[in-house]
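User: Run a structure prediction on this.
Assistant: Running it now.
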Amino acid sequence: MSLSIEQLARANVRALTPYQSARRLGGNGDVWLNANEYPQAVPFELTQQTLNRYPECQPQQVIARYAAYAGLTPEQVLVSRGADEGIELLMRAFCEPGKDAVLFCPPTYGMYSVSAETIGIEYRTVAARADWQLNLPAIAAQLDGVKLIYVCSPNNPTANLIHSDDLRQLLEMARGKAIVVADEAYIEFCPQATLAGWLQDYPHLVVLRTLSKAFALAGLRCGFTLANKPVIDLLMKVIAPYPLSTPVADIAAQALSEQGIALMRQHVAQLIATREWLIDALKGCDCVEQVFDSQTNYVLARFSAASQVFKTLWDQGIILRDQNKQPGLAGCLRISIGTREECERTIAALKPLPGAAAVSREQA
């Protein structure tokens, strides 16, 4: 019997809905507020000309500088193609397809489920509480057979921190049973909340980091997994031979220099000031029903007629991220913090749009 290409593929991949990244969703805008990127390019110059040679698997200077930045030792740091590769490496190292499971708490980052499906690992979801904090009793009831628990803090797309007391309880609950993975992609916007200092107390804690957000290097694809040496040693067994190209390592090392880190912190301060301005301005728009607190470089808001608002701005070249399909986020749009000018354009586009009363009259 002759099989089509589709039939040759694994059944779970045939059924898979791929992660809808901001770039995959497309759009023809000039104000891109849908991918939580830093809004302006930071200039770098390539210094390495040894492109005829394979790069180091784990570039020493990058590892040393990130370890110093995170307050850890080099043996506690692994560098990879974005934090997304870290999410997947952990599954490949710790989960037996068809046997083990991973767990996470929606609404949250979509790659946890996509990576699990791709590899053929069961994933379990325990919905967050109404305040988007962990439902610890419900998690405890689902832990049988779970090897990895992913917790995004600050959480994407809700922009809130997970309570540290709850994280300690989760770590105690998982001790000797599962790895707890704290996804800290946005931690530079609230550095006091990092769990990196907890590694000494919890051998089963892993922290994911990235240069894509505050370091303004989304196009570089460079992320870090922070963990104790036994975990790093296991991940080194499954990582690709040369995960970072020479130009990526070159620029990452520059970004992690003293000057690079100082510049990042300066950018973060500016961005937080713009975020606070945007939150206040959103509260003055009739079409906005609720603006949620943010510890990140984006703001989640609930709108009257969110789909209409999304399309109206899309047609004006202002691209937001629709979160309607996420559990508990009906009517919500996520707005990345752009430049002050981009945020002002966004507010100018939102101001004329009607509020809930007017929308319900139109629909009556």
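The chain has 14 helices and 13 strands.
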